[in-house]
Amino acid sequence: MARLNRIPQVFNILFYLCVFLCCFTRLASANIELDEDNWTQILDGEWMVEFYAPWCPACNALAPAWKELSNRAKNKNLGVKAAAVDVTKSPGLSGRFVVTALPTIFHVKEGEFRQYKGPRDVVSMLEYVEQGRWKQIEAIPSWKAPNSLQMGLVAHFFKLSQALRGVHNMLMETYGLPTWGSYLIFAVGTIFIGALLGLILVCIIDLLYPPRRPEKVMVSQAEVDKKKEQDGKKSDDEQELINDDIVDDAEHDSDVEKNSPSDTSEDDKEKTGAGDEGKNNDKPEVRKRRPRKAD
Fold first, then answer.
1. What per-residue string of b and e applies to 132-152 under the rule 16 or more CB within 10 Å gives b?
2. From 18, 22, 23, 59, the catalytic residue
3. Which of 91, 148, 141, 85 is nearest to 114 (CA)?
4. Is 15 helix (H, G, I), strand (E, B) or coil?
5. 3-state SS class at 80
6. What is the mean pLDDT of residues 105-128?
7. Catalytic residue among 18, 23, 56, 203
8. Is 254 exposed, middle or buried (0-12, 13-18, 19+ CB in 10 A)?
């Protein structure tokens, strides 16, 4: 009877031991989950980072191989760690790393980032790290590196877009607004914010670079009178030149009318012929033009 009483105790011990081993194995094989707060730890050491989404079929197919990669790397003492980023929870990191497809894998070595584009099986990924194939791939330039200032700004824009998307869904689902109503609210808000930012920018520019005011020049009354006198003389000379041009044009028009052929008959031409011959013998009259005053 005593032995029969010990059997349940042995089963209980074995059960708890199995539970402990399963939990330990799960913790040992679990990848490190990165987010906006702890992603900077990949800047030290060597890492393989996967970007995934729960709704992505290719990401779900890669999940077993990714866990096995972490376990084999630990068994071989490669010193590489495996991490994963859920883009639905950390949209800023997807913008910081410029993730355009899922799943996307990055290799990080002492702060240098390289995108892994090889086969997605465990053996290929281990050889990529173990044989140093990452050295054959050019690292991401510093201006595009995820830890740079400009990529940090991109990350904030991605987070802002996700926040606006949440507001859009709330307006439609919670308040029952139609799609066009939500878009109209965003359009009005965008115009108002743009005008406000433009006003602030103009004020800042005026503050830093104020417009130059024309300097006042003190002029004496004698100089003012002298300038008026010069302007009056100039206007009188111009008016006189205009009058001379008008007189010359009038005299020229009268000469043209005199020299134009008349409609007289042939008899009148013959009568006036003799008189014209006598006139032609005389010296032609030269019209003198009145000299103009110099400007």
1. eebeeeebbeeeebbeeeebe
2. 59
3. 141
4. helix
5. strand
6. 92
7. 56
8. exposed
- 56 contacts 102 by C-beta, under 8 angstroms: yes
Rg of the chain on CA atoms, in Å: 49
The token duo for 294 is 């110099």
Evaluate whether 87 touches 54 at the Cβ level (below 8 Å): no
d(CA 236, CA 214): 33
Q: Are 122 and 72 in contact (CB under 8 A)?
A: yes
In this structure, which amino acid lies at residue 70? S
The residue-averaged pLDDT of 186-214 equals 89
Q: What is the pTM of this model?
A: 0.56
Whether 18 sits among the annotated catalytic residues: the reply is no
| In the block, residue with structure tokens 């808000």 | 189
**Amino acid identity of 203?**
C
- At position 290, the amino acid (one-letter code) is R
Total residues found in the chain within this entry: 295
Residue pLDDT, tens place only, 265-292: 444 444 444 454 444 444 445 444 555 5
Q: Give the whole-angstrom CA distance, residue 92 versus residue 162.
A: 9
Under 8 Å CB-to-CB from 109, ≥6 apart: which residues?
46, 47, 134
Q: What is the pLDDT of residues 24-54, one digit of tens each?
A: 333 333 478 999 889 999 999 999 999 999 9
- Span 228-263, pLDDT tens digits: 777 766 666 666 666 666 656 666 556 555 555 544
Query: Is 203 noted as a catalytic residue in this protein?
Result: no
Predicted local confidence at residue 274, as pLDDT: 45
Alpha-carbon distance of 89 to 97, in angstroms, equals 15
